[in-house]
Structure formats: structure tokens, C-alpha cells
């Protein structure tokens, strides 16, 4: 008999999500739930921060987060029946886009057919990543379903201050279209976000002047955009993109070799990552390992400048981890085998 596939946590979550969507579609049938037009549901924490900021002072909309605010990036989020019920009762949904919220493809089946979906990342030129990233030994991890590696957009653009401004702008334009009477309010809030972004850009510029060129190992590509803004280079992920298990002993050995060969300066993890392997690698390779806030999770009722506080604290932490010593410019990425369906996107220059 053929060997039965193993049930990973990802597959279990995926199956439960599919079952929940199917049950709700049956229960709702063709009837459409009454809409609370003032309710705006956000599909991930960063766009919750952005939408909440824009709504403050106008307060026409009731801004809610669909996911758990402490859960981090919703790559594996499986909506509960209660979450799906909330989708049936809203006319507006804000998503990050770029594939950050894969659960939406099925969850939206129970939403009203005319639900307004605001894609905050629309028009943003994303960095491209390999599912699995180019591994330290030159190999690439396949997709969970066995497909060959392919280039996909990195969805973590929200951590870049300048891209956060673009995302806030997308949401502001959509809210203005839905609420024309609030046009001046949303324009004013967007201008305030732009002013705060200019302050962050000044901090990023000062950091690049004294710390650019350092090379990093991170987790699941979460810091690629912010690292580029800071003049840093991400060379590898602790675990291959898309995998759930911690790195094997062989992979840690390869990463240790990479640390030595490339003079890796630090290992940086998002708050949801398991720090055990990073601490082991850092201790053996004598490089610092630290957790960097990804702004993908936080308190359920955050202050309106929560995003700016996260970026400032991240820059402060990196300034402590990395000595002030201008490094040579980071090398360009290594050439990789051409994927079957390439979608490379040229990133804009910082200045």
C-alpha cells in the first residue's frame, strides 16, 4: 500500500479552514446577510494599524481585526466559524495583499458578493523571493504540495516605512471613495503619516551612513524590506521558507559555515519564531542573535503611533547589535536557477 502522507500543522489548518468555509456556505445558502456598512474588517495586523490611524477622528467606520493580534503574520491562519460569520456581516475588507493572507481565497466565499476589498499593497513593487529561498548549499526547497520552486512576491512590504506610506495612501483613497464627505479628513491623516515617515527616513539614513553593508541571517523573509532600507543584506533564512520544522543539524552546520565565510553580523528573528536554533547558532558562531519586532502583531488596542515606535525601537536595537563601522557595499544576490514561472520585480532605489 502507498505510504499515507503525514499530517503537518499546515495541512490540518488548511483542512479545518476549508471545512469551516464549506459549512458556512451551506448554512448561509443563497441568502445574503444584512451588512453593517460602517464595519471595516482588516485581514492582518499591519493594515489594522494603518486603517485605524486613518479612521481616528472621523470614526465613521468600526475598524476590526479579523486575526489574533498576537499571532503574527497570518501565513497559516485558519478562520474560525465566528471569524467567517463576521465576514458575512461586513461590506469592507482591507488586506495586505502580495499573498500575506492566503486564507482569504477561501474565506471570502462566505462574504457578501459585493464586498469591497481594499488591497493595501496595490502598485507596490515587491521584492521577489524564492519559496525556500536559495539555500546555503545552493538548493531550493519545493512547495509543500511538491511543485518546483518559483519566484513569489515577498509580502512583508509593510515593514518598510516608505512602503507603509504607500499602503496608507491606498487605504486612504479607498476610504475617501466610500466616504466622500471625509475626503479632507483622510487627506490630513495621510499627510500626518507622511510627516512621521519623513522622520523615520531620517533615522534610516543616519543608520545607513554608519552601519551599511552588514550581512544578516533572518527568519522567513520578514525583514528583507527593512534591511534594504537600512543598507543591510539578508543572505539566508534560518529555516527554508515555507517549512514549519526547526533547522536540521546539517542545516545549522551549513549556516555556521556561511556565518564564517560571509562574516555574518547577526541573526535576527521575528517574535513568532522559535529562538532556540538561532541562539545555538549564534553561540557556536559567536554572533549575536536577537528578536526584531516585525509590526505583524501587537496589542489589540495599540497607540496610533505604534508602527513608528516599532521601527524606532528596531533601529535602536540594531544600533546596539552592530558596531558603527561602515562596511563595503553588500554584494548582489547570487544567480539562481530560473524558476518555472518567474515573477521578478525590480525594487526601486532608496533615494
Helices and strands in order:
Blueprint (H helix, E strand, L loop, with lengths): L8 H20 L7 E7 L2 H11 L6 E4 L15 H8 L1 E6 L8 H4 L8 E4 L8 E3 L20 E3 L7 H18 L4 H29 L3 E4 L5 H7 L2 E5 L11 H14 L3 E4 L6 H10 L3 E3 L14 H16 L30
Parallel strand pairs: 1-2, 1-3, 3-4, 7-8, 7-9, 9-10
Antiparallel strand pairs: 5-6
Would you kindly provide a written description of the structure presented here, covering whatever features stand out?
This protein has 351 residues and is an alpha/beta fold. The chain folds into 2 domains: 9-119, Rossmann fold (3-Layer(aba) Sandwich), CATH 3.40.50; 128-321, Rossmann fold, CATH 3.40.50. It contains 10 helices and 10 strands. It has helices at residues 9-28, 45-55, 81-88, 104-107, 161-178, 183-211, 224-230, 249-262, 276-285, 306-321, and strands spanning 36-42, 62-65, 90-95, 116-119, 128-130, 151-153, 215-218, 233-237, 266-269, 289-291. The strands form 3 sheets. The protein has a 4-stranded parallel β-sheet with strand order 2-1-3-4, with helices on both faces. The radius of gyration is 21 Å and the shape is globular.
Amino acid at each position: 500500500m502507498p505510504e499515507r502522507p503525514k499530517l503537518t500543522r499546515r495541512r490540518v489548518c488548511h483542512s479545518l479552514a476549508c471545512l469551516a468555509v464549506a459549512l458556512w456556505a451551506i448554512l448561509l445558502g443563497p441568502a445574503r446577510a444584512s451588512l453593517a456598512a460602517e464595519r471595516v474588517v482588516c485581514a492582518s495586523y499591519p493594515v489594522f494599524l494603518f486603517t485605524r490611524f486613518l479612521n481616528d477622528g472621523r470614526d465613521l467606520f468600526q475598524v476590526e481585526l479579523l486575526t489574533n493580534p498576537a499571532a503574527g503574520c497570518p501565513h497559516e491562519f485558519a478562520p474560525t466559524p465566528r471569524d467567517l460569520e463576521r465576514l458575512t456581516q461586513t461590506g469592507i475588507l482591507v488586506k495586505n495583499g502580495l499573498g500575506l493572507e492566503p486564507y482569504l481565497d477561501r474565506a471570502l466565499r462566505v462574504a457578501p458578493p459585493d464586498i469591497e476589498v481594499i488591497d493595501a499593497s496595490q502598485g507596490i513593487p515587491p521584492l521577489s523571493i524564492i519559496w525556500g529561498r536559495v539555500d546555503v548549499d545552493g538548493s531550493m526547497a519545493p512547495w509543500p504540495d511538491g511543485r518546483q520552486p518559483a519566484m513569489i512576491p515577498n509580502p512583508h512590504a509593510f515593514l518598510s516605512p516608505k512602503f507603509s506610506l504607500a499602503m496608507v495612501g491606498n487605504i486612504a483613497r479607498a476610504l475617501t471613495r466610500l466616504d466622500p464627505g471625509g475626503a479632507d479628513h483622510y487627506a490630513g491623516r495621510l499627510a500626518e503619516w507622511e510627516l512621521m515617515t519623513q522622520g523615520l527616513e531620517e533615522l534610516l539614513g543616519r543608520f545607513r551612513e554608519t552601519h551599511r553593508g552588514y550581512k544578516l541571517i533572518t527568519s522567513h523573509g520578514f525583514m528583507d524590506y527593512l534591511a534594504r532600507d537600512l543598507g543591510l543584506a539578508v543572505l539566508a533564512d534560518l529555516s527554508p521558507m515555507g517549512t514549519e520544522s526547526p533547522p536540521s543539524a546539517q542545516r545549522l552546520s551549513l549556516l555556521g559555515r556561511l556565518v564564517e565565510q560571509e562574516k555574518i553580523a547577526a541573526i535576527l528573528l521575528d517574535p513568532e519564531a522559535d529562538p532556540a536554533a538561532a541562539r545555538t547558532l549564534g553561540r557556536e558562531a559567536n554572533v549575536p542573535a536577537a528578536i526584531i519586532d516585525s509590526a505583524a502583531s501587537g496589542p489589540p488596542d495599540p497607540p496610533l503611533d505604534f508602527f513608528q515606535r516599532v521601527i524606532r525601537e528596531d533601529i535602536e536595537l540594531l544600533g546596539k547589535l552592530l558596531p558603527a563601522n561602515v562596511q563595503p557595499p553588500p554584494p548582489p544576490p547570487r544567480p539562481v536557477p530560473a524558476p518555472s514561472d518567474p515573477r521578478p520585480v525590480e525594487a526601486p532605489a532608496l533615494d
